[in-house]
Specification:
Radius of gyration of chain A: 23 Å
Largest sheet of chain B: 6 strands, mixed
Distance between the termini of chain B: 35 Å
CATH class of chain B: Alpha Beta
Largest interface: A-B, 43 and 46 residues
Radius of gyration of chain B: 19 Å
Function (chain A): Part of the binding-protein-dependent transport system for D-xylose. Probably responsible for the translocation of the substrate across the membrane.
Shape of chain B: globular
Strand order of the largest sheet of chain B: 6-9-10-3-11-12
Shape of chain A: globular
Membrane topology (chain A): Multi-pass membrane protein
Order of helices and strands of chain A: HHHHHHEHHHHHHHEHHH
Strand content of chain B: 25-35%
Helix content of chain B: 25-40%
Strand order of the largest sheet of chain A: 1-2
GO molecular function (chain A): transmembrane transporter activity
Number of helices of chain A: 16
Organism (chain A): Nonomuraea pusilla
Number of strands of chain B: 14
Order of helices and strands of chain B: EEEHEEHEHEEHHEHEHEEHEE
Number of helices of chain B: 8
InterPro entries (chain A): ABC_transp_permease
Oligomer: heterodimer
Number of domains of chain B: 1
Structural class of chain A: mainly alpha
Helix content of chain A: over 70%
C-alpha cells in the first residue's frame, strides 16, 4: 500500500517538470488559457494606445511629453498602489481620492499657515492617512459595515473636511522648495544613470542569488536563460526611458536646461519595491492574499482577519496621503478639488486595468503602476488630440468597464475550466 | 495498550438539547478508528469538543494517558491534534506550499523562508508517497477534489501531529480519488499516527479501519474491532443502537 495508483485523466508527472525557458513560456500560455490574464491586457493596451497616439499626434512621442506622462500619472498611480491592498481583500475604498485631498490639505495648512518644516508637514499628512485608515478599517472589520457604504460615506464627509481645512474654498499655495521639487524637478542625468545601473544590478543579483540558493537546496530553480531574458528586458526598457528623459526638453536650452528623470519616478519605484516585498515576501502579505482568497480558511489558520483588514485600509489611506502630497506638489497648491473629481475612479481603474481582481485574492502592486500608465497615456493623449473633458471621461469610463469585464470574464472562464 | 486519545463520559448540551450523553471514545496510535453514526448522532460535535471548538459540559479528555484541558483549537494543535474539516479550508489563490504553511509561515528575519518551506512541504508529501501533483508551486484552484483532500491532510500532518481527525474526507470524491485518499489514510496510520475517520460510507470504513466506534443519538453504541463485526451489524448499530449482544442494552428512545 505504498504505491499511489496512476489515475486516469489526472496529470501524474513521473519526473518533475524541468525548468526551462520553453516550459516557463508554456506554463504562462496555460495560465492565460485558464483565464489568468495577469498584466497582459494592460501591456497590450499600453502598446496599442501609444502607437495610436504617436501616429495621430507626433507631439506625443517627444521627450517633454514623455516626462509629462510620469508627473501626470504619479498621484493616481500612488493611490492605486494602496488600493491594491484593499482590493486584494475583496473590499473597496471609494474615499481614497478625497482622503488624498484631506492629507494634501493637512500638508498645505502645516506648510503655509503654520510654517512647519516640510518633513513635519509630510509626516502630518501621512499620520492623517493612518488615522483615516484605522477609522475606515475598524468600521469595516469590527463593526461590519460593508466597505462600499463606509467609504461612500467617507467620500462625502472628506469633501466637507477638505473644505473646512482650506477655509471654505480658498486656494492654499505651497512654496516649500522640497515639496514643490517632488513633482516638478528632475534628477541630474548622471544620478539617473547611476540609479538605473544600481537597480538593474540589484535586480539581477537578487534573481541569481535566489536561483543559486534554490538549486543548491535541490529545489526547482529558474533557468539562467529566463533570468537573463527578464533582466535584459528590464535593462532595455528602463535604459531607453532614462535615455529619453535625459534628453534636453527645454524649448530654450540656452535660457534654462530641462533634463533628467523626474523625482517622482524614484519615489514610485521605491514604494513599488517596498510594497511588492511586503506582499510577496512577508507573512503579512501572504495573509492578505489568504483573507482575500478564503476568509474562513484564513480564520481557521489562526490569522487575525480583522487586524489584516484594518492594516490594508491603513496602507491604502497612507498611499492616498503620499498621492495627495505629490498632487499638491504638482499643482504647487491645494484647493477643494484636490483628490476630487475623477482621481478615485482613475485610481480604481488603474488597479483593475493592471490586472487586480475586484473579487479579491488576485493582484500585484506592479499592476497599479502598469494600469496607472495606461490611464496617464489616455488622459495625456486625449488632451493632445484636443478632445475635451467629455470625451476623456467617456473613454476612461469605457476602459474601466472593459477592464472589469475582462476580470469578470476571466473568472468565469476559470470557473468553467474547473479552476475555481 | 493506552489509547492516544480517549474521551470519558463526555456530556454536551446546546441550550435545552443534549447532544452527547456520556460518550466514550478511544483512538490508538498506528490505527484507523472509524467514527460512524447517523446524521445527528453527534459525530461532528464530539470532534469539535476534542478539537477545542466546543467546551464540554462534563467528562474528561485524556491524551496519552493524562487528562488534558482543550479550551481552544490552539490547545488541540499544541497537543498534536489536527482536524481536517469537510470544507477543506484551503485558499484557492495560493499554491500548495503556501496553503500548507498558512498561518504558521517559516521566516528568515522579516522575510519568508520560501525555500525552507518548499523543502519541508516536499518532504512531507513524499513521506506520504503523494506523487499526483505536478508541482507543489501549483495553485490550489487547479487541483482536483482528491488532490485538495491530499493537500489538506498533508497540511495536518506537517506539524508533527499525533492525532489526525478526518471529517468525511471522501464524501465529495469519485471512485478513483476515493481510493487514493483511503490509501493515504491507511499510510498515515502506518506511520504511527492515530487516525480518526468520520464516514457514512461502510465500504470506506471496512476498507481502512482497524476499529469502529458507533454513535447512536449522542451515545456510544459500541466500540469494536473491525475484524470482529460484519457490515450488517455496523449498519444495525448505526440505525438502532444495538445489534445482538452489541450496543446499548436498554432501549433508547429518540
Amino acid at each position: 500500500m505504498n504505491q499511489v495508483k496512476e489515475l486516469p485523466g489526472e496529470a501524474v508527472a513521473a519526473a518533475k517538470q524541468s525548468p526551462s525557458l520553453g516550459n516557463s513560456l508554456r506554463g504562462y500560455v496555460e495560465r492565460l488559457r485558464g483565464g489568468d490574464m495577469g498584466a497582459l491586457p494592460a501591456v497590450l493596451g499600453l502598446i496599442v494606445l501609444c502607437s495610436a497616439f504617436a501616429a495621430a499626434r507626433p507631439a506625443f512621442v517627444t521627450s517633454i511629453n514623455f516626462a509629462n506622462l510620469f508627473t501626470q500619472g504619479a498621484a493616481v498611480t500612488l493611490i492605486a498602489m494602496g488600493l491594491v491592498f484593499v482590493l486584494l481583500l475583496g473590499e473597496i475604498d471609494l474615499s481614497a481620492g478625497f482622503a488624498s485631498g484631506v492629507c494634501a490639505a493637512v500638508l498645505a495648512v502645516a506648510l503655509s499657515e503654520m510654517g512647519l518644516p516640510w518633513y513635519v508637514a509630510v509626516a502630518g499628512a501621512i499620520l492623517t492617512g493612518v488615522v483615516i485608515g484605522v477609522v475606515l478599517g475598524t468600521l469595516v472589520a469590527k463593526v461590519g459595515i460593508p466597505s462600499f457604504v463606509v467609504t461612500l460615506a467617507a467620500f462625502l464627509a472628506f469633501q466637507g473636511l477638505v473644505l473646512v481645512l482650506v477655509d471654505e474654498g480658498t486656494n492654499i499655495s505651497i512654496r516649500d522648495p522640497v515639496i514643490v521639487a517632488v513633482a516638478n524637478k528632475n534628477l541630474p542625468p548622471w544620478l539617473g544613470w547611476a540609479m538605473y545601473a544600481g537597480c538593474v544590478a540589484v535586480f539581477a543579483a537578487v534573481q541569481l542569488l535566489r536561483a543559486r540558493n534554490r538549486s543548491r537546496r535541490g529545489l526547482a530553480a529558474e533557468p539562467l536563460s529566463l533570468i537573463g531574458a527578464r533582466v535584459g528586458t528590464l535593462a532595455l526598457i528602463a535604459g531607453l526611458a532614462v535615455y529619453v528623459l535625459n534628453l534636453e526638453r527645454s524649448r530654450n536650452p540656452a535660457l534654462v536646461s530641462l533634463t533628467g528623470v523626474p523625482i517622482v519616478v524614484p519615489v514610485i519605484l521605491a514604494l513599488l519595491v517596498l510594497w511588492t516585498l511586503v506582499l510577496r515576501r512577508t507573512a503579512f502579505g501572504r495573509h492578505i492574499y489568504a483573507v482575500g482568497g478564503n476568509t474562513e480558511a484564513a480564520r481557521r489558520a489562526g490569522i487575525a482577519v480583522d487586524r489584516i483588514k484594518i492594516s490594508a485600509f491603513v496602507i491604502c489611506s497612507c498611499m492616498a496621503a503620499v498621492g495627495g502630497v505629490v498632487a499638491a506638489s504638482r499643482a504647487s497648491s491645494v484647493d477643494p478639488n484636490t483628490g476630487g473629481s475623477s482621481v478615485l475612479l482613475y485610481a480604481v481603474g488603474a488597479a483593475v486595468i493592471g490586472g487586480t481582481s475586484l473579487f479579491g485574492g488576485k493582484g500585484r502592486v506592479l499592476d497599479a503602476v502598469l494600469g496607472g500608465a495606461v490611464v496617464a497615456v489616455i488622459e495625456n493623449g486625449m488632451g493632445l488630440m484636443g478632445y475635451g473633458a467629455s470625451v476623456k471621461y467617456l473613454v476612461t469610463g469605457s476602459v474601466l468597464l472593459l477592464a472589469a469585464g475582462v476580470d469578470a470574464l476571466a473568472r468565469k472562464r476559470a470557473a468553467a475550466a474547473g479552476l475555481r | 495498550m493506552t489509547p492516544l486519545l480517549e474521551t470519558r463520559g463526555i456530556d454536551k448540551s446546546f441550550g435545552p438539547v443534549k447532544v452527547l450523553h456520556k460518550v466514550e471514545f478511544s483512538a490508538y496510535a498506528g490505527e484507523v478508528t472509524a467514527l460512524v453514526g447517523d446524521n445527528g448522532a453527534g459525530k461532528s460535535t464530539l470532534v469539535k469538543c476534542v478539537g477545542g471548538i466546543h467546551p464540554i459540559d462534563a467528562g474528561a479528555i485524556y491524551f496519552d494517558g493524562r487528562q488534558v484541558q482543550v479550551n481552544s483549537p490552539r490547545d488541540a494543535g499544541d497537543l498534536g491534534i489536527e482536524i481536517v474539516y469537510q470544507d477543506l479550508a484551503l485558499c484557492d489563490n495560493l499554491d500548495i506550499v503556501q496553503n500548507m504553511f498558512l498561518g504558521r509561515e517559516r521566516r528568515n528575519g522579516l522575510l519568508l523562508d520560501e525555500a525552507g518551506m518548499e523543502e519541508l512541504a516536499e518532504r512531507t508529501l513524499s513521506s506520504l508517497s503523494v506523487r499526483t501533483v505536478k508541482s507543489i508551486r501549483q495553485q490550489v484552484s487547479s487541483l482536483s477534489g482528491g488532490q485538495r483532500q491530499t493537500v489538506a491532510i498533508a497540511k495536518a500532518v506537517l506539524w508533527n501531529s499525533k492525532v489526525v481527525i478526518l471529517d468525511e474526507p471522501t464524501a465529495a470524491l469519485g471512485v478513483a480519488q476515493t481510493a487514493q485518499v483511503l490509501e493515504l489514510v491507511r499510510r498515515l496510520a502506518d506511520t504511527g499516527l492515530a487516525v480518526v475517520l468520520i464516514s457514512h460510507n461502510m465500504n470506506d470504513v471496512f476498507a481502512v479501519s482497524d476499529r469502529i466506534a458507533a454513535l447512536y443519538l449522542g451515545r456510544t453504541a459500541a466500540q469494536v474491532r473491525t475484524a470482529d463485526v460484519t457490515h450488517a451489524q455496523v449498519v444495525e448499530l448505526i440505525t438502532s443502537g444495538r445489534s445482538g449482544d452489541l450496543g446499548l442494552k436498554n432501549g433508547v428512545t429518540p
